[in-house]
Structure formats: C-alpha cells, structure tokens
Amino acid sequence: PISVILGGTNIPLSNNQSLGNFTVNATNDIYTIPVTGRYYLTYQINTTTSLLAGTRLLLNSSTPLPGSIFSPAISTSNYNNNLITNLIAGNTI
C-alpha cells in the first residue's frame, strides 16, 4: 500500500519493465529521458477505494506536464491518461 499525502505522492512503478536506455532512480519513481525527441507517455493507477484525488506527471520533479493532469469531478478508483510531448535528453519524469 502507498499512503497518499496532500500535495502529492510519488508512485513507484513495477520492477518488471523493459526500459531500453532509460534510467530509473533507486525508488523506481523517476525516469531519465535518454534522447531528445517526441514521446508518447501513458499511465494507469488503480486504487483499492474511490478517492477524490488527481494525478499528473512531473517534468524534472517540479513542473506538471500539460496533458498529463487528470482531475476527476467525482471520486474514482481508476486514473489513466495518455499524452505526446517533446522531451530533452536528461529531463526526468
């Protein structure tokens, strides 16, 4: 279980991924972009109970990526989003 805190909670991804040249930090929640380019990003989060919470991807640990923000009007237990964005080598998500 992951405790959700006000202001944001990083969610680690599973260990069974094919990352190619991407690198990931020790807590498995920040990925470094290896090559400048246009990227398709997708995420899905499922919770055990419905929550009135939002999700987003952060660029370089601080800036919400436009198109990645999901803020439902009602409580939900399924959060997912897809976006295409330009990223620079060395950026983190």
From TrEMBL:
Domain BclA C-terminal, chain residue ranges per copy: 2-93
Record's keyword annotation contains Lipid metabolism: no
Annotated InterPro entries: BclA_C, Tumour_necrosis_fac-like_dom
UniProt keyword list: Collagen
Pfam families: BclA_C
Keyword ATP-binding: no
Name listed for the protein in its UniProt record: Collagen-like triple helix repeat-containing protein
Organism of origin: Bacillus wiedmannii
Classification lineage: Bacteria, Bacillati, Bacillota, Bacilli, Bacillales
